[in-house]
From TrEMBL:
Residues 1-75 form the Ubiquitin-like domain. It comes from Lottia gigantea. Residues 620-634 have a biased composition (Low complexity). Keywords: Membrane, Transmembrane, Transmembrane helix. The chain crosses the membrane at residues 130-149, 155-175, 187-211, 231-255. It comes from the Eukaryota. Residues 616-641 are annotated as: Disordered. This is Ubiquitin-like domain-containing protein. InterPro entries: ARM-like, ARM-type_fold, Ubiquitin-like_dom, Ubiquitin-like_domsf. Pfam families: ubiquitin.
Amino acid sequence: MIIYVKNQDFPHRTFVLSLSRQDKVARFRAHLLHILYDIGKDDHQFKLRYKGEMLRDADYLGDYDINDNAIVSMIPTDSQMERIYSLMTLASQPSTIDLHTGQPPNIKDALNQEIKHFDKREKYLSDFKALLYINTLVILMAVLTVYWYSVAWTGLLFLLAMLFVPTYTRIGGFVGSNTHWRKYYCVLFNIGAVICLAIALYFSIITWTTIVNHGCKDWMFVDDCSHRQVFSAVLYTIHSVLLIISTVIVCLLLVNFRVETGDFIEKYLVQEKDIEKVVIIARTGRMKERRQAAYDLATLAASSNENKLLIAAEGGLQVLETLTLNKDSSTQESSLEALGELLIVPSIQEIFLRSGGCRSLLTALNSPNQRVMYEAANALYTIVSESEDNKQALIQGHGIEDLAHAGREGKVTCQRVIAGILLELTFNSEIRAQLSSTNTLVEVLTELCKSQDLDTKRFALQSLELMAIENCDLVCSQDNLIEILLDIPLKTLDEKLYLLAAKILMYFTENIETCEQLLNNTSIKESLGLFARSENPVQQRVVARIIFLTLETRSLKIQAIDMKLNKILEYIREHPADRETWDMADQGLSLMNSEDDLSNLPTLTTLEKLKKMETTHGFDTSSSATADSINSSDSDLKKHV
C-alpha cells in the first residue's frame, strides 16, 4: 500500500512510501531515515502520528488501521526554536543543555550499514549489466566460430536476461514491474548460465585439445590448427570466464536482495530497554536524553500492564509528573502520553491522585502547545471516567478554570476530550451543585456548542441539559445560547442533537423574559419546524411543549401567532409519531384558536379526545387502544404538557 508522509519542517515535500499492513512502525521510520539521509537531513529527529495517535515502533501498521493512501504526520522533536532556546540558556545551564542533535549512535551505525549494503547492490547491478553487453558481443562473435550454432541457446539466455534484468538505484529503489521477480530472475539466470558455462567449457577444452594435438607446426594455421579453430578456442575460453564472473555477481546479488530497507535499523528501534535505566536517564539526563527517555517510557507503558507497574515501582510516576512541567514541549508531550498510559491501572491512578498529581495535568492544560494540551486532557479523562471519587480531585483549586481554558483554546480533538470530561463531571449531582454557583462551566459549554465536531457538540449539549436541571436561570442567562440552539438544525442532520437542543430550549419557556427572547428570534419557526419533522415521539412532544408554553400570557400568545407557530403544531397533528403527540398538538392549536391563555385552557374528556382524533386523523381507537386511552386521566395529560 502507498502511504503519504507530511512534515511541517518540509512544507514543500511529501514523502511517499510503499509498505504493507504487516510492517512494523519501526520499518516505516527506517524508510523515512533513508529519505532524510538522501536529502542531507539524517539528523532530523521525529515521531509519527496518525489520526491524533502516536505510532509505536514495536507495533504493526495494521494495529492503527493504516490503509492504502493514508496520510501520516511526521512530527519533529527537535525544532529550530528548541535549538535557539538551548543556545540562549547555554551560559546559565551548561550541564542540562545538549546541543548535539541527531539519531542515537546505534541507529546511525545501522543506517550507514544499510546504505553501504544498498550501494553495493547498485554497483553489482551496474557491473552485471555491463557483463550482459560484453557477453552479447561475444555471442555475436560466436557466429564466426566452429560451433556457430551455440548462438541459439546462449543468445536466448542473454536476450531474456537483458529484457528482465532488475533496475535499482539506492535513492530511487527498484524500478519496473520485473523487479518483483528479482530473486527468481537470479536463480533462473544462474541455472541457464551454468548450463551455458558447461557447454562453453566443453567447446573450449575440445578445441584446445584438437589444437594441441595438431601442434600447429611452424605456426602454420591449417587443418585442425586453422585460424577459425584458434579463434573458437580463445572465444569460448573468454566466454567461460565471463559466464563465471556473471554467475558470481548474480549470486552476490541474490544474497544482497535478501536485505530490505529497515532490516538493520528495525531491531535497534524495537529492542527492549531497561526500565530502571530509562527512568534514571529521565530523572538526571540532559535535555535530549530526557526527551528520548520520556518517549521510551511512553512506548514501554503502552506495550503491557507489566511495564506500567515496573515503571511505577522504579519511581517513574514522580519523574513523569516532573517532566510534564519541562520547558521542552516534546518532553512534555511524551511524559503526558506516558502518564495517560500508566493511569489506566487503578492502583497507579490512586497513588497519582494521592500525591496531588492532578495539579500538574491541569497546569499542562494551559500550555500553548496543542499536543501537550491534548495529552493532558486525555490523561484527565482517564481519571474522571474511572471513579466518582476522582472527580472531586479535578475541581479543587482552579481545575474548572483550567478545563475552561483548554475548552476555549484547544483544537477540535482537545475540545472533544474536554467536553467529555465536563460531561463526566456534570453527571455527579454534588459536583453539579458546586459548579452551578459560578458561570465558568456554563460559559465554556456554550462555547463548545459552537464546535463543528458533532461529538463535542453532543457532549456539551448533554452537560448543559444537566446544568439546566440544576440551575435553569444560569443556563438561560447565557448570551447567544438561543441562537446557537436554533442554529443546530440549520447546520446538521443529527437528530440526537435536535432532541438535546430542543430540550434545552424548553427551559427558556419557563420564564416570561427568556420566552420573549426566544420568540424574538427570527429563525424560531424554521428551526422548530425542522425539529418537528421527526419520527421520534419524544422530540415532537418537546417541540409541542415549547410552543404550548409560549402561550402562557396573552402577549406571548399573540407573538407566537404572529410567528405562525401554529403551522408547526398543525404539521405535528398531521404527522404525529403517536397519539399523545397528536393530543398535545391539538391541545396547543385549541388554545391558539381560543381567546383564553394557558391558565384558562378548557379540559376535554378522554372520550371527546378519542372521538376528535378519529374524525381528524383516523387513528384506530378500538379495543385495547381505546381501553388504554380511557385509563389515562386529564391530570396525566397535563403532567406531560
